[in-house]
Queue: 2 jobs
Job 1
Amino acid sequence: MAGSGSVGLPGPESSGMASAPAREPAPGSAGSPAPASVAAVVLVGGRARRMGGAAKHLLALGGSTPWDRTRAALAERGITPVVAVGDAPERGASDAGPEGEVLSWVREEPPFGGPVAALAAALARPELAGVAEFLLLAGDLARPEAVIARLAEADLTADPVDAVAFRADGQPQWLAGRYRAAAVRDALAALDRVDGASCRALLGGLPIRWVPDEDGTTADIDTPDDLERARAEVAGSAPRSEESS
């Protein structure tokens, strides 16, 4: 991820919230945060009922999986540590990641308690104790590289705001956003309970800069049709080998 030369997201849209007071940059920062101050939380533990209970983040997609593509894109941008919320691979299973990755696993309590419970479990991890900002990502994004590239360039100090998140067809894509950790921790503390709480209840009160998703960047894989569509898109964008004469 670029340092002080990062480019903020163009065309901010108002979230309807009053402008937040100006904040002093974090110590040692100049413009957008250094890579070490930005982490990632990836939610991979849903029930996937419409996919027959399959682990959606491990579905085959373009010779890889959404999970591996997400990890590679985060590593390329220097975003670390990464906390995955879901069932960790079984002992002895291969889970080799990209070079430089710092990955840990946690499970929300109770299991399947929803995205807010999952996020609360992740932020309780010691690896995230000193993190200023984090990317919050669904584990079944069909185009994680595009989502991560856009969010990695976001600058929360420009307006300033507490979050930058995508909005598709007028709907907030909470699991495709970049958030200020302190603001989210405060919002968590204000909730009566995290089990079953909605992302809107947790994050909807934050000053947010919305990024319009006009080309399906944040599409995820919820159904078999979604999977086939994602596979067709990946196949269509892959370089074709020249036919032998």
Job 2
Amino acid sequence: MIEGGAHSNGPAHLGASSFSVGKHALGWILGHADVWYLLFKFTAYVGRYGGGASRSGSAPSPVTSTLSVLENLLMLEEDHSGVAEDQEAENLENLEEEEEDGERHMQQIRRIATRNRAETLPNAGSLSLSPPPQPPPQLSLSPHQNQPGHNQHHQIGVSSGGSSTVQVVQPASAPGSPPPPPVPLTVLGSPLCSNGGRISPATQGDPTATLDPNWQATKSTVRERNAAMFNNDLMADIRFLVGTPGSTQLIPAHKYVLATGSSVFYAMFYGGLAECTEEIEVPDVEPSAFLTLLKYLYCDEIQLEADTVLATLYVAKKYIVPHLARACVQYLETSLTAKNACLLLSQSRLFEEPELMQRCWEVIDAQAEMAVKSEGFVDIDTSTLQSVLARETLNCKEMTLLEAALNWAAAECTRREIEPTPQNKRDVLGDALYLVRIPTMSLEEFANGAAQMGVLTQQETIDIFFHFTANNKPKLQYPIKPRAGLKSQVCHRFQSCAYRSNQWRYRGRCDSIQFSVDRRIFVMGFGLYGSSNGASDYAAKIELKRLGRVLAENNTNFFSDGSSNTFHVYFDNPIQIEPESFYTASAILAGGELSYFGQEGMSEVTVGQVTFQFQCSSESTNGTGVQGGQIPELIFYGPSHEEH
């Protein structure tokens, strides 16, 4: 082996095994004087009897031959060390790039959290991220971990500051066991309130839990003993410095607990690349979100709040904790509204959550004008902006989309620290501007709006004017085909309508009916019966409530031609209807008193993929009920048979 190394064409032609042999042989030879002497004598013998003469006619000396062998071994070791050092440098560079990407991602999450805290509802300034309100919680559900037959339980309560807090307690799966089904989350109580970014007491840990010298005897279960160690310095063998510089928090932890709950932590502490360090910096994670992660790993509890749920989803993805990530997604789905749909769409694309993305698109399609006018729209990323502007199924005016795009551009100029001039706005929009279908506006909208905003070039403005007025239309970079939008559907709850003299009259009283659905839909308006005594004008007040709270109302007018046809009246914006809850539809009409009315009413009607259930309303004072009366139709957006 040594002679082979001495007479080879160089270490670059050796395999991995030669590197290893060279390394160990060199160290062993240099550490044994007797071996060095034998090597010297051996090379002298070979040089004298078998080595021959060199081309110059003189044989190399024994010392020269021996040094040649050692030099080749040393070259093998140096080359091997160089390769390892290069690989280590490359790995460190990749890790630095990943941390920079994570920091950019967290900056966007912080902007979104700030925006969420600023978006409030009229009732007590609570967050718009909350689901539809339900009665205040009256019960505290106690845990059942000591009772047989209970595999999981849910703790539902209200945290300090008024925030609704979801605690989902579930057993940890054994290694190799199949993953448990998705955790069903229920949010009760008033709309979620911001805690101002402070860490919830529920995730601070209890420093007094282990003050008793015999504290172990006071904890009857493994879960209780584990929970006592959460955010506790006792026996902690690792600490995390979490947060951005200036707002960091030192959080103690225990490697064993973390490694059993996350493959990433296992690799960090016990894997082949484990580092011997007592403190790890985590600059791309919010302290409150990191504590939520640890709370789950130590206690099997999931505690989510509106202003930290996105940061918690990020940390769950970062450390590959799928159960926590799934709970975050479910929470976001229940909190989804038109005001936060675009923000959540942007995040769901980054987090690669296709189901959440689909839910966001459902809301954006049906409530596009509300979504793009929301304050959070300006915080979405460029890719999401382009996706929204290119969407074929948006129910939105192009003028509204153009204004929203320019609002986003102004915010982007601020982020880039440049002046938001019309030219700079156009520059930051780039090709996204060409996704707005300006030629499909009305001539009046274009002349009084888009043409005067300063973002179109003079030639573009002239060409679009010619597009409106000339027979020979110029070629434009902007799409000229209107968006298809969503197709509305109608639920008819009566099998027939009738008229009998003096039997049904509009007398300024309320006609009302309650309904529920099994799929999420968006109600646009109602179909109403008109005059049965010739043509008549009507003034109508329509209203939609849930649990006594008015979700939408509108005062409008319609003309009845005296036929039995229904006449459609609409709300200003579609209203999101959640499944398995009853809503109250009401109408008060003033006009021709005698009207048509419905009969042979059905308590259950299926339209497309949506099943409606109807029941009588106590608010109905004009005779409308399930079997007959007014409000014969509900107009809505929702899934149809054609959708898969």
